[in-house]
Design brief:
Layout lengths: L1 H11 L6 H6 L2 H11 L3 H76 L30
């Protein structure tokens, strides 16, 4: 790989530092070490190339690691959202069943009340005469489409 190639080139040009040291040194220490070593232009260029490639390799590894961590976080979030969706769908089904039961109860009670309304002679009053129309405006029509 690049690091073994860099190590061979560093040995061939007798660089004062190993490639790992060139990459891992803080920039001030790196520059000071190169200044003390009195390197030729090709040696100096090689040392800087080794450092640049090493830093790039470390940055690429860090980037790949962050990407995998982000994918893992997104997968966990997707699982959590899927569970939340299922919970909400169950709650919606329960609410729809409860609403259906309430509508049936309301229809039954409305029919009983409207059936019990009588005039003074005991004759049943038509709901229309009271301004009432059974099952209209009481939410008994069923859910709206859509």
């Amino acid at each position: 790989g690049a690091s073994s190639r860099d190590a061979r080139r560093a040995l061939a040009l007798t660089l004062p530092l190993a490639p790992e040291a060139l990459v891992n040194l803080p920039v001030e220490d790196f520059n000071a070490a190169l200044g003390r070593a009195r390197l030729s232009a090709p040696e100096l260029a090689l040392a800087r190339d080794i450092r640049r490639r090493g830093k790039n390799k470390m940055a690429a590894q860090k980037c790949r690691r962050r990407k995998l961590e982000a994918i893992a976080r997104l997968q966990a979030e997707l699982g959590r959202l899927g569970r939340e969706r299922e919970r909400l769908l169950r709650a919606r089904g329960q609410a729809e069943r409860a609403l259906g039961a309430l509508r049936r109860d309301l229809a039954r009670v409305s029919a009983q009340v409207l059936g019990a309304l009588r005039d003074g002679d005991g004759t049943p009053l038509p709901p229309e005469s009271l301004g009432l129309v059974p099952n209209v405006g009481l939410g008994l029509e069923g859910p709206e489409p859509g």
